[in-house]
Amino acid sequence: MIIERSFFFNEIGEVVIKKRKGSKRMSIRVNQEGKVKINIPFFVSFREGEKFLISRMDWIKKCRIKIEEKKPPKTIYTEENLPTTKHHEFFIQRTERQGYFRKFTVGLCEIFIPEQEALNSEKSQKYISDSLIATLRKEAKIILVNRTREMASKYGFLINEIKVKNLKSRWGSCSAKKNINLNLHLMRLPTHLSDYVILHELVHTIHHNHSLKFWNELNKYVGDSKSLAKELRNWSTS
């Protein structure tokens, strides 16, 4: 059972505090977007959660600084510097039409930009970025979904729906109804890491937390889960 409340602090913005049944101590997390989440035991008041947050304010600010420092510089796309994926190349075409549009053929995403728009304009750059997301989603809906069903069948996991989403702070999730969400950015990872994430979520269909039983079960399929989790931390979820 979970009860959560949102609080706003002038120094760091919105913070979500969750009461979790079974939690034994207070913990705090700053995700890759800089958002702060706090878990507290069910018997601890939200007021105590706020005090805990205030006591860790300096640590939160340092975490956010480190997150910003790790972010790669913003990419400026040119005709010589276009994104690529594992299965598609990108090509810029100029069009007399007023609007932007894209066209997929085998292994190619053609991006059509109005002649009057500069390639380095905010609109053009955003459309190229959006086209990259659309391409990763297109690939993921086939490759990741098929791979998940393949491994579920191979290892005997029972699952329901598999959805591909542009998640901001996690690689995947699994609901109590055995529905699995996968981050489309898994398509950027080496296969052994995307397989690790998929198996991680499949194991959650039988162990809904990160207990010792969960990790022991996961290790049956991936070997050394700790080293894979460490390697995964070198990649951004968006």
Question: Main β-sheet, in a few words?
Answer: 4 strands, mixed
Number of strands: 10
Largest beta sheet: what is the strand line-up?
A: 1-2-4-3
Distance linking N and C termini? 30 Å
The Rg value, from CA coordinates, equals 21 Å
Spatial shape: globular
Helix proportion: 25-40%
Average pLDDT across residues? 91
Strand content: 15-25%
Find the structural class using helix and strand composition.
alpha/beta
Low-confidence stretches: none
| SSE series | EEEEHHEEEHEEEHHH
Number of helices: 6
Q: What does the model show?
A:
The chain is α/β, with parallel strands linked by helices. Helices cover 38% and strands 24% of the residues. The protein contains 6 helices and 10 strands, in the order ββββααβββαβββααα. The chain has helices at 46-55, 57-70, 122-155, 191-203, 212-222, 225-232; strands at 2-9, 13-20, 27-30, 36-41, 89-95, 101-105, 108-114, 162-165, 172-174, 180-183. The strands form 3 sheets. A 4-stranded mixed beta sheet has the order 1-2-4-3, covered by helices on one side. Strands 5-7-6 form a 3-stranded mixed beta sheet, covered by helices on one side. The longest helix is centred in the middle third of the chain and has 34 residues, at 122-155. The two termini are 30 Å apart. The relative contact order is 0.09. The model has no long low-confidence stretch (mean pLDDT 91).
